[in-house]
Amino acid sequence: MVFNMMDGYGYGMMGPGWLIIGFIFWILILVGLVLLIKYLWQGTGIRGGHESALEVLKKRYAMGEISKEEFEEKKKELM
After folding, report:
1. For the residues 6-25, what does the mean pLDDT come to?
2. 11 and 35 fall within a common domain
């Protein structure tokens, strides 16, 4: 007895559909991994946690490294 691929035993007609679904599945997995890595990279400060210049200026003023006049002058320059 010879089985033809079209009679259901070989699942011949399901091949292209499952191939497309599998391809879409792996694309979604890769996109998810890229987004996860991007989120973790930005969220945890792997890049060094860059602060804005104004935040640094505020911290320097709060710690007493610069006077109020210096703070106001530099703040105007930044704005």
Report:
1. 70
2. yes
